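Many introductory courses stop at the sequence. We go one step further.
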Amino acid sequence: MSYNRQDTVSCENNPTADCTVQAALSIIGGKWKLKIYKALRDGVPQRFNTITKSLGDISEKTLTAQLREMEADGIVVRTVYPEVPPRVEYRLTRLGQSLEAVFASLDTWGKSYIRQKAAVVTD
């Protein structure tokens, strides 16, 4: 059985109790999505190259794929301006902005985890 991300997000084929957690992780999981979120969280629309530079070693192909998934999930909106050369900007939607509490909680938990792991090593 192959992995179908849309099945995970919609929970149609996965009516288990943890489906909503799996859906959330499918939307924000992976190496780059929270980093992209962090680049966009200040509310200022960002151009593709600006996002690329802020992330460092991400390839254009990967960033494009991740932004497309985030756009399909309603987390990011892509605006194309009819200019020459074309200007494209990305920003968080209201749904994307609602991830702030999740991001802050993950940040707090991650810091606590790192401190606790360091304390175990030094004990």
